[in-house]
C-alpha cells in the first residue's frame, strides 16, 4: 500500500476510536474521574492529613502522580482490549479490517493510538480534578510526557494482545482484575518503596508498574526510587516485546482466524 | 506445451485461481480436500453446495479470514500469501453474517470501510452516498445500523463491499432471508455491475436464480468440487427424470443428483 493509503487507513481507525470515546464518554471517561475523586478524598484528604510528608512533599502531592498513572494505564488497557474483543467476538466487524489491505503494523499503531488518546484525555482530567485537592508540583514536564506516552503504549499493546487472544469476556476481565489492579496497588502508588521491608522491596523491583509510577512521579516531584534510565529501558523493552507479540498474532491470525 | 501455455494464459485472465487448496480445522474437520477452480475476469460465477460443503471456508481463505492448510490462491495474478495487500485491494466481500457495528450509522460504516482500503473521506463520502442511494438506503444513512430491516442490512453490506471499487466481488449468500422483490432488485443491480467489468463470485441456495444469472458454475460437496464448467456444461449433466418432484429447474436436479451421495 502506498504511504498516502496507509495514512488514510491509520487515520480512519483513530478517527473511529476518537468518535467512539467521545460518543460514549459516560463509559470511557467518567468512571475514572469518579474513582479518582474518591481516591483523592479518602487517601489524600481524610487519611493523607494523618500521614507525615514523604521526601518533603505532602502525602496528597505524593499520591497524585500514582493515581493519575493508575487512570492512564487502566484506560489505555481497557480501551484497546475491550474495543478489539467486542469487534472480534460480538459484532464481528473486526472482519472489516481483516479483509482490507491494512497491514498488521498499521492496525497495531492505530489501536495503540486509540488507547493513547483515551488515556491522555482521562489522565489530564484526573490531574485537573486533583488540583481541587492540591496544586501539583511540576519538576520535569518532559518526563511527565515521556512516561505518560510510554506507559500508555505499553498497556495499549498489552490490551491489544489480550483482545486478540481472549476467547471469552472472562479472558478480558481477568487481566485488569487479577493482574493489573494488584500490580498497580503494589507498584508504589500509595507508598515509597523505601518504606517496605527488604523482601517486599525486592519483589517490587519485579513489578513493571513500579518503574512507570516512579518515572512519572519524577516528572512531577523530581524524586524517584529507581534509576530513570532503568525505568525507561524497562518500558522500552516491554514496548518491543508487546509489539512483537501483537504483530505475530495479527500476521498469523492466531486467536483471530480459524 | 500447448496445455501449459493455455493454462498460463487462463491464469493471467483469471480473477481468481484456486489451486489444490485444502483446509483442515483444529477440530479435525477437513473442510476442503484439494479444491481447484478458476473464475474468469468479468464472470458471474456461482459456487454452489449444500450447507457445510466448504463454500464459506473457501471464501474465508480467499479473503484472508481463514488460514488454508495447503495449496495456492491468487487474485488477478496476486498470490494471497506473497502479495497479500495487492490481492486484498481487489476484493470486496459481502459475508454470510451481518458483521457491522450496530451502533454506527450506515454512512460511517461505508465511509470507514473505504478508509481501510486507503480511500480518503473526501472521495469516500460522495461515493458512499451514491452507493447508498443506488441501493435504496440514502434516507437511512444517518440512522443507527441496528434500526435497519434485514434486507436493508444486506444492502448496506453490498454498499460497504463496493466502496473501494473492487474488481472482484464475493457474495456469500447475500439474499438469505431477503424477500423476492428485493432479491430481484439486488440481482438486477449486481448484473449491471458485471456489465461494467466487475467479476462476481456468488454462493446462494436459490439455484433457479443462479441458473439464470451465472455464466460459470462450480458445485462443491463435502470439501470437493463435484462439477464445474459453463452453466450449459453443468446443465448437460442433467439426465432427465429426476426423482425429485419438487425440483424447480435443471440446475437444481443436477445439484441434487451430485450432492445426494
Describe the structure.
The complex is a heterodimer of chains A (about 260) and B (about 260). By secondary structure, chain A is an all-alpha fold. Chain A has one domain (about 5-250). Chain A is built from eleven helices and no strands. Chain A has helices spanning about 5-25, 25-30, 30-45, 60-90, 95-100, 105-130, 140-165, 170-185, 200-205, 210-220, 230-250. In chain A, helix 4 (about 60-90) runs parallel beside helix 7 and helix 4 runs antiparallel to helix 8 (about 170-185). The two termini of chain A are about 25 Å apart. Chain B is of the alpha/beta class and about 260 residues long. In chain B, the strands form two sheets. Chain B has a six-stranded mixed β-sheet, with helices on both faces. In chain B, helix 4 (about 105-115) crosses helix 5 (about 120-135) and helix 4 (about 105-115) runs parallel beside helix 6. Chain B is built from ten helices and ten strands. Chain B has a single domain (about 15-100, about 150-260), classed as Rossmann fold, CATH 3.40.50.300. The radius of gyration of chain B is 19 Å and the shape is globular. Chain B has helices at about 1-10, 55-65, 85-90, 105-115, 120-135, 150-160, 180-195, 205-215, 230-235, 250-260; strands at about 15-25, 30-40, 45-50, 70-75, 80, 90-95, 170, 200-205, 215-220, 225-230. Classes of the chains: A mainly alpha (about 260), B alpha/beta (about 260). The interface of A and B includes residues 91, 95 and 96 of A.
